[in-house]
Amino acid sequence: MFAKLKKYNFSFVNNQKIKFMKKIIATFLSLALLTMIAGPSLTVAVSPNVNTGLTRGSGGGDIPVIKAKWEMKGPCLNGADYIACPSVGEGNDDEVSAGAQFDAPGVWGANMNYTVCAIATDPDGVADLAGVYADIYYPEGKAIHDRTPSTDVHRDTARGTQDIGVEGCGEFIEENTLHQLTKAEGYHLFCEEIRDNNYNLPVFSEYYDYDEICAPDGELMKEEAYVYCSDKDLIWEDPAGDYKVNVFAQDNASNNSVTLTNYFEYMPFTGFEKDFSSVSYGQVMLNTHKKISGDLTFGNGIPSIRNVGNTRLWMKVAQDDMGLGQSSGIWNVQYDGRVGNNESDWTNYDPFGYKGTTPGSYTQLEDIVDLSELEEMDFSILVKKWPNVNTSYSGTMWLSATSAPFRNCVD
Q1: What residue ranges define each of the domains in the chain, with the CATH number in brackets?
Q2: Using an 8 Å Cβ cutoff, are 305 and 375 in contact?
Q3: What is the pTM of this model?
Q4: From what superkingdom does this record's organism come (predicted)?
Q5: Is the peptide bond between 64 and the residue preceding it cis, with omega within 30 degrees of 0?
Q6: How far is 93 from 71, CA to CA, in rounded Å?
Q7: CA separation (Å) from 66 to 85, 93, 118, 258?
Q8: What is the average per-residue pLDDT within 141-149?
Q9: Beta pairing, strands 290-292 & 374-383
Q10: pLDDT at position 45, please?
């Protein structure tokens, strides 16, 4: 009986110890879990800002190489995918001279699309190339106004000092990342389309030419070099001239290739658009100037013009005699015209000839019409003698334009 009681007590004590230990373990687990859940939310930073920095890694391996580069008519890609220039053909430009020459669109608001390409390799393998890049610059010595199309606030005349521009002048436009073509795409573009049909389009780095690049055992065929391209554009009002393009490659060790530079020409186009098809002077009194004013609203039929070319321009005008004829060798009618509304810009001109003939010469008007500028045109007529009893007269006016100097760059 005693023995049984003693055994029973021993079991009871053990059970109590086990229960006690379980409570302690459960308490510690609960505290640990609470710390895991609530701990981070209780952390208070003295300052939320953390300074960061790095040191550019450099060295190691040989530098990449740009073997050749060129520009051609575009677009030739869809995003990063090469689509072989479907609307313009591969490897084309607009002239036969060496390098690339591109026509301006001559349309208000339109773009000139082109594509920049290069062939790049790396002695440590093309997988070591981190990127191929093109930097594009405005022509030197040609200043332009703000890129937003607007009326020109800087007045200029053929008789005055040239205006100062605020952009252009060889300034950096942008940097672009070129996209890798496949082996087949690149070889076909460069070694077949360009070499066979537009031989003098690219420029080469020293020691490289078509024979080296396109050889059956050359790097293009062995996938040790690739063609890289990117679509770009100029807008209709970007100035005519030679645009510089620098291309370079960078590898994973931050080594840069030697930069390969060339220029493409945005060929000059002088052109304008008018929004009126007639000028009615209405009732005109003898020896009295009758003026007809234009406005700055394009499209309402009241005389205005806008520059759709990539040069500044002067407007030119020619007018027949409207049947008013001459007296003693002197024209019975005189005209005046101007661009803009400066009083000093009125220019008078006689008829170029009799009604029914075509002009052999034009009269140049003031003021200069700037890139993408919209301006009014004003006209005036002075009848000095009525030749007969006719009550109405009509004739034809011709408008033309000639290029004007670009704005001066600030030294």
Answers
A1: 65-266 (no CATH), 272-404 (2.60.40)
A2: yes
A3: 0.81
A4: Bacteria
A5: no
A6: 8
A7: 23, 22, 7, 7
A8: 68
A9: antiparallel
A10: 56
Q: What pLDDT, on a 0 to 100 scale, did the predictor assign at position 13? A: 38
Distances (CA, A) of 44 to 35, 37, 39, 40: 15, 15, 11, 9
Report residue 180 as tokens. 């890798």
Cβ atoms < 10 Å from Cβ of 96 = 8
Predicted local distance difference test score (pLDDT) of residue 10: 36
The count of residues in the chain is 411
Query: Dmax of the chain from CA atoms?
Result: 162
Provide the token pair at 410.
Answer: 């600030």
Query: 127 phi and psi, to 5 degrees?
Result: -65, -20
| Averaged pLDDT for residues 380-397 | 95
Sign of CA dihedral 216, 217, 219, 221: positive
Extract the runs of DSSP E, i.e. beta strands, from 236-366. 241-251, 260-266, 272-274, 290-292, 304-307, 312-319, 326-327, 330-331, 333-339, 347-349, 363-364
Residue pair 200/99 in contact by the 8 Å Cβ criterion: yes
pLDDT at 49 (0 to 100) = 81
| Residue 88 near residue 98 (C-beta atoms within 8 A) | no
Q: Take residue 263 and report the two structure tokens written for it.
A: 């220029």
Q: Which amino acid is at 299?
A: G
Query: Distances from the Cα of 302 to the Cαs of 272, 350, 399, in angstroms?
Result: 16, 23, 15
Q: β-pairing, 312-319 with 347-349?
A: unpaired
